[in-house]
Amino acid sequence: MATFLKKPLSPWRAAIETAFYANSVKKTSMAELYELSLKQPEVVRTDEPLYKPEQYGLPADAKVLVSIDGGVVGRTAKARRLVRELAKPESDKLKAILLEALYQFNRRPGLWLEGIVGLHPDFMIKAHLLSPASDAKNMLDWGFNFTPMMEPWAGTFRKSKVLNEPDILVFADPEWSNPAYPSGLVIIDEAENCITILGMRYFGERKKGTLTLAWTAGVRHNMVACHGGIKTIGNKAPVAVFGLSGSGKSSITNSLDHEGTLKPSEHVTVVHDDAFLIDFESNLTMALEPSLFDKTDSVRFNDPIIKYFYSAQNVAVLETPEGERKIVAEDIRNDNGRCIKSRDMFNHADYCAAPDKVIWLQKDTSIPPICKVNSSGLAVAMGASLSTLRAKGVENVDAKELEKLVIEPFANPFRVHPLLVDCQQFMKLFKAGCECYIMNTHAFGTPDDLTDIPKELSLKIMTELVRGNIEWRDWKRFPGLAIPKNGAEIFGADFDKKYKPSRNAVYMQYLRDRMQDRITYLSNKRDIEHDMDSSFIDPLVVARTVIDKVLNPV
């Protein structure tokens, strides 16, 4: 697994890797996993044809299988523990828990699936998933989401650039339980590219856990780790959008016509809507996954999009009068229904040039629908303090938490390397000439007086932004930001009436408070966690000082 004699192993990796070689474990294939999934008690076989099954060695008549996860249908961030942050006695406690979990796991039949993370020969890492045979469906989905070690992907991997990285190891046992960890336990040793996922059924934990390790490896190779979408429109340079689930990231990235505002000549090529790396050395943006793990809340009954499905999770299945079992999505059964589908649904590529535009998608109602950021320092500060609302059902959190505005730096809750490193990497990107914008995809105004920002407007803004048709004027109350000068001309006569920042004291105080939220968050990162530099906070302090003078003139 690319670890032997490379360097001293951590006890975490040593324990996990040893478990792969137990007598109870055997290597598996996508074909075997499909057959085992058909027999898995909680899995539902639909009559929806699985997209191009032959490429995975599956039967030509293979069907989309639906896994049902019970009451938890989203990620559980509170279960995560980072090895680099552990101190005694917790470190010793978790090591003992891991060793016992592996012992109990190895007393049952286990399966080992080999895969590849990364689609460009400059960045491909071999990955290994170890799980009980009873969890075949999640293993199958992991193979769909990344790529199994089979042709043609294996051939590309053999010719790929040799990285000084150990293989990624993922150990997942959903049958594990411990009363001290009712929500499960995730142990991440990012320095050794290994992760343990215990007591968690939801597939997204395996996907994001694997991506977490790949992103971190990319950062070690002077790349920018990106949780976002990237696409090209016509002959323009790529544009990247960064946002949490529910921010419009996938809707904006995967839209082929921007609600009819794009011309036929402005053809769209999507690289990915979730995970990629930007490599400074080669000036490339490289996708990490060949497929899409997307929400199904907008998937209708008999939707043509289902043609591209490989798999689905936590959606309803109903039987027609003709006896066919069909997918019923739209989040009717539960929140956060999901599918894994092919990018063949649109024109796509595995890589592109580095973006020349980065857009922070935020649900900060103090910010207009679109702003241009005029300084690299402020661009990083606004990304490091990206403010948004959590998507309903995506994360396993209390309902009250969904109503709170949260800050998630660079929209990446899966980052395990220091935040300061991300700041430094994005600063390199902006200093190299990449432009930065902020797009509010939620609503604008004060809490008692909000104007909705429809998806159609966001897509229209994206179109005109790429075309270069927006003229900008400085937002004097927020130094470093600019707002559209010709908004009414290109977005409708009522654009300024709805979205022009007010000068009244109520709005100005609200804007000031939201700025202070960002400053406080980043200052705590600096002063308490020692993971921030004042240079990435100062641009926000300057802006807040201007508003202070407006609110309290001498």
Element layout with pairings:
Blueprint: H1 11-20, E1 25-27, H2 30-39, E2 43-49, E3 63-67, E4 80-82, H3 90-106, E5 110-120, E6 123-132, H4 136-145, E7 147-148, H5 153-158, E8 168-173, E9 185-189, E10 194-198, H6 203-220, E11 223-233, E12 239-242, H7 249-254, E13 268-272, E14 275-279, E15 284-287, E16 291-295, E17 309-313, E18 316-319, E19 325-328, E20 338-342, E21 351-353, E22 357-362, E23 370-373, H8 376-384, E24 387-389, E25 405-407, H9 419-431, E26 435-440, E27 443-446, E28 449-452, H10 455-467, E29 472-474, E30 481-484, H11 487-491, H12 495-499, H13 505-527, H14 538-551
Parallel strand pairs: 1-5, 3-17, 4-9, 6-8, 8-10, 12-22, 22-26
Antiparallel strand pairs: 2-3, 5-6, 5-7, 9-10, 11-12, 11-13, 11-14, 14-15, 15-21, 16-20, 17-20, 18-19, 23-26, 23-30, 24-25, 27-28, 29-30
Helix pairs in contact: 1-3, 2-4, 8-9, 13-14
The helical percent reads: 25-40%
| Overall structural domain count | 3
Under the CATH scheme, the architecture of the largest domain is Alpha-Beta Complex
- Rg, Cα atoms, Å: 24 Å
Percentage of residues in DSSP E strands? 25-35%
The outline comes out as: globular
Would you mind describing this structure in some detail?
The protein is an alpha+beta fold and 554 residues long. The protein has 3 domains: 11-221, 3-Layer(aba) Sandwich (Phosphoenolpyruvate Carboxykinase, domain 1); 224-290 and 350-501, Alpha-Beta Complex (Phosphoenolpyruvate Carboxykinase, domain 3); 508-551. It has 14 helices and 30 strands. Strands 11, 12, 13, 14, 15, 21, 22, 23, 26, 29 and 30 form an 11-stranded mixed β-sheet that branches. Strands 1, 4, 5, 6, 7, 8, 9 and 10 form an 8-stranded mixed β-sheet that branches. Strand 29 and strand 30 form a beta hairpin. The N and C termini lie far apart (67 Å). The model has no long low-confidence stretch (mean pLDDT 94).
